[in-house]
Amino acid sequence: MASVLVVEDDPVIRAALIEVxxxxxxxxxxxxxxxxxxxxxxxxxxxxxxxxxxxxxxxGLDVLRMIRGISRVPVLVATAxxxxxxxxxxxxxxxxxxxVKPFSGGQLAARLGAVLRRSAPADDPADRRRPVRVADxxxxxxxxTAHLAGRELALTKREFDLLAxxxxxxxxxxxxxxxxxxxxxxPYLEDQTVDxxxxxxxxxMGEKARKPRLLHTVRGIxxxxxxxx
Length: 229
Prior knowledge:
This protein has about 230 residues and is of the alpha/beta class.
């Protein structure tokens, strides 16, 4: 079962998509507008997004580009536009696949399943133990050490976990809720918990929130560790 976010403003189409996807065992959330969909992705990332292009507040292509700016979540685009140039634009903008309206429920389920299979990460525990390097920051998950420009950082357990997580998702904007869920494994803690540890990390890395080098806060969205300061 996958967590699916459907971004569709038409209530009839939205209801039909919910029926098909829940019938195939998926957990479905919906958003009626582009900005609402972006908030849902940052608040609680789904396994896959089904994105309509004809949204009332933003063009779906712009929404797709914004999604790619903050997340690698697979996106299946539903569009009435079947011109080759339009499909190429969608794929180049980051769509994982597309469906041209009208389409059947069976076709939707099959395409969605194929995208999920292609995007599933290889379950290799060794990957999680390999050292990670981001700019002049190096992290060794096995030794649980972090060095910045050759200098070892004296980090608490939680500070190290937070930094290692951000490094593993370098150049992605990660929401505080996602960090609480995947690092703290307590998604209902206050966002301030992350900010306290982030402030400590910045201090130990010699950074300031107003002039960040590696650790950037994206207002209203989340936190990003950049690989090219």
